[in-house]
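Appendix C: a fully annotated inverse folding record. The material below is reproduced so that readers can follow the format used throughout the book. The structure is listed first as tokens, followed by the designed sequence.
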């Protein structure tokens, strides 16, 4: 039997996400991104397709490296305007029962005390369906928006993130004991103060002396996602993440990334099976290959190469407008995504040029889509899982909601026939569905801060 594939719908609270320019297609509805109806419809479709969740990306800042200007991004709606993804979650949860929500939140610019409460609140409101995609940011424009001249160095951001995680673990896992909440109306006791504890922390980056403001949510700590591909990012993922979101140009490169992440996870004393690895992909599906190809060509006419270049320039920190079409792109040390720079320079089998990048951008993104009939797309997805040891996919949209509807209606039934996809949801919170238990395992570093473990270092509330 093939491995059971995990699926997330990959999206963002904006007009143009990954496949840039698709918003200009007459059937695309992404210009309605700022309405509740738009997101509730997508959530219903994803749940009808038994997707594990909707994975919401986010970015703080604007893409302004290409041509040293935000204008290309603004004209083409390349992730600008972009609204807060967390505010979408209650609206989508209200019209679904099982669908999970993996939401990106940048820890660099928000105190852990406040973020921990927001995460707990969303886990309560979704009945345990909330997950956090941990990011540290990579845009100087975001730093300037927060009053800094430039962002912190890449590895410094991960050092800060490690300590941030320690603080939120203490709040989520150690402040309120199991059984602290009584809801005893007869005796007028809502919670037992002897079981509610003050969290103290004094580190290099954060200081805290406070009780977590929220009572324990169904999962306590939300499901933890992470998307860093640099060596430092992979080490962070191996320490903290339960699900890792990766990119890769081909099966060989993907397989190497997956093996490295699983090796690092095992070295941390964690079970590599407790790590779900999701690959970013998109698909153009038809009832026949001819129909799919015609659909792709139709979409292609709306793709924005300029928006794709603006996106990649900010991801890498390299202004691609400085290059001639056939000039090899050179490695530069930047404060952006190290993995994005390495992918087209030091790790590339042959030099990448602007012409070669543009040739890849058939739908306004850097990764070519899978194109074919439902059977062909399903077979390609199953084969890639077998060849690389990934666990599933973050499927980004093309024309919306059409692309998600096509996948749900055409590909999901074939995956089910092949024995590669579930036919019903399991019960329980998101972590229960993914890993079989609602709480993090004892091998996870968060477990150190539970009462009776690392939490004994904390001081009881007065």
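Designed amino acids, in order:
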């Amino acid at each position: 039997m093939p491995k059971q594939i995990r699926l997330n719908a990959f999206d963002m609270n904006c007009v143009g996400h990954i496949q840039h320019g698709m918003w200009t297609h007459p059937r695309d509805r992404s210009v309605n991104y700022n309405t509740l109806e738009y997101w509730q419809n997508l959530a219903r479709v994803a749940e009808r397709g038994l997707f594990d969740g909707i994975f919401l990306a986010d970015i703080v800042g604007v893409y302004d490296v290409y041509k040293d200007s935000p204008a290309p991004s603004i004209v083409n709606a390349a992730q600008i305007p972009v609204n807060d993804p967390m505010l979408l979650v209650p609206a989508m949860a209200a019209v679904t029962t099982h669908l999970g929500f993996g939401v990106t939140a940048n820890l660099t610019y928000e105190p852990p005390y406040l973020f921990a409460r927001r995460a707990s609140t969303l886990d309560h409101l979704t009945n345990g369906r909330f997950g956090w995609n941990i990011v540290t940011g990579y845009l100087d424009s975001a730093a300037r928006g927060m009053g800094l001249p430039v962002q912190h160095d890449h590895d410094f951001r991960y050092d800060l993130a490690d300590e941030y995680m320690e603080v939120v673990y203490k709040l989520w896992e150690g402040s309120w004991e199991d059984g602290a909440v009584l809801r005893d109306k007869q005796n007028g006791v809502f919670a037992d103060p002897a079981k509610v504890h003050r969290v103290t922390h004094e580190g290099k980056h954060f200081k805290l002396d406070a009780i977590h403001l929220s009572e324990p949510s169904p999962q306590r700590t939300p499901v933890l996602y992470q998307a860093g591909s640099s060596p430092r990012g992979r080490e962070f993922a191996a320490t903290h993440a339960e699900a890792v979101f990766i990119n890769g140009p081909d099966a060989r490169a993907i397989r190497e990334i997956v093996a490295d992440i699983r090796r690092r996870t095992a070295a941390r004393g964690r079970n590599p099976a407790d790590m779900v690895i999701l690959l970013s992909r998109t698909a153009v599906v038809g009832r026949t290959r001819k129909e799919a190809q015609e659909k792709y060509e139709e979409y292609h006419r709306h793709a924005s190469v300029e928006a794709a270049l603006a996106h990649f320039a900010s991801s890498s920190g390299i202004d691609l407008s400085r290059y001639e079409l056939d000039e090899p792109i050179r490695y530069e040390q930047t404060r952006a995504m190290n993995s994005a720079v390495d992918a087209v320079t030091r790790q590339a089998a042959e030099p990448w040029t602007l012409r070669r990048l543009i040739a890849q951008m058939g739908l306004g993104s850097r990764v070519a889509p899978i194109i074919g009939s439902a059977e062909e797309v399903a077979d390609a997805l199953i084969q890639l899982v077998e060849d690389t040891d990934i666990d599933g996919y973050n499927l980004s949209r093309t024309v919306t909601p059409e692309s998600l509807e096509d996948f749900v209606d055409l590909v999901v039934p074939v995956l089910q026939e092949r024995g590669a996809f579930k036919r019903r949801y399991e019960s329980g919170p998101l972590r229960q569905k993914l890993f079989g238990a609602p709480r993090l395992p004892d091998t996870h570093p968060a477990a150190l801060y539970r009462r009776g473990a690392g939490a004994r270092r904390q001081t009881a509330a007065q």
